[in-house]
Amino acid sequence: MPEINIIEMQNVGIRYDQGPEILSNVRLSLKQGSFHFLTGKSGAGKTSLLSMMYLAQRPSRGRISVFGKDINFTNRDALASLRRRIGVVFQDFRLLDHLSAFDNVALPLRVCGMNEREVRKRVSELLSWVELDAHMLDAAATLSGGEKQRVAIARAVINRPELLLADEPTGNVDNFIAPKLMKLFVELNKLGTTVVIATHSEKLITDFPFPRLHLQNRGLYILPPAEVLSDGGVDA
């Protein structure tokens, strides 16, 4: 059986208003079940690339297909259906502050009509895994930055999406929680989810040897897993 391209980009460029292109001539074939880090300096275009992947915006030029659908010729209802197959961890969390941690995480399952008993089982287990069992009923607005980050991650993975996109998902947690969250992403990947994680963390890149999508000079380059050099740097 041929491999499926979850995301395919051909000669993609993106600019805002009349400014210069942030990304130019991007070509990418993201295979089903793959795991990549997304790297590059601040301002290189990581967030813009992710936003096109999760269908928040269309490219200024070029072609993007997601799950085999060309988004340039896909209507609003069809795009909404595609988005339900994607889990996203935003850098600014985007939680509903008036809802509890539990209800934020449960939301995708309830939208899909899952039985409430199964919802409670899944959400309780996942919040315990990310060590938030003591804060399940706390309003999101009262949580710390690191706690909000873990709720956002739990919400993104709770319905086992086909594609998971995460923008700096360990940026607000300590060195004990970060590898535990990464192991959650790895386990989800083993179940078949395609994963892309944007990060500046050299430790994550070296501790978890996955290939990288590296943005530089408005272009996208595929790099092999990082290796630690003798001077402690990272081989890009």
In short:
By secondary structure, the chain is an alpha/beta fold. It is built from seven helices and twelve strands.
Verbal overview:
The chain has 236 residues and is of the alpha/beta class. It folds into 2 domains: 5-85 and 161-235, Rossmann fold; 96-154, no CATH class. 31% of the residues lie in helices and 25% in strands. The strands form 3 sheets. It has a 6-stranded mixed beta sheet with strand order 6-7-8-3-9-10, with helices on both faces. A hairpin with a 2-residue loop joins β9 (212-216) and β10.
Tertiary shape: globular
Q: What structural category do the secondary elements indicate?
A: alpha/beta
Helical region count?
Answer: 7
On the 0-100 scale, what is the average pLDDT?
91
CATH superfamily of the largest domain: P-loop containing nucleotide triphosphate hydrolases
The residue fraction in helices comes out at 25-40%
- H/E topology pattern: EEEHEEHEHHHEHEHEEEE
Low-confidence runs of at least 5 consecutive residues:
228-236
Remind me, CATH topology of the largest domain? Rossmann fold
User: Number of domains in the coordinates?
Assistant: 2
User: What is the architecture of the largest domain at the second tier of CATH?
Assistant: 3-Layer(aba) Sandwich
CATH domain class of the largest domain: Alpha Beta
Largest sheet: 6 strands, mixed
Give the tally of β-strands: 12
Arrangement of strands in the largest sheet? 6-7-8-3-9-10
Radius of gyration: 18 Å
Distance between the termini: 33 Å
Strand portion? 25-35%
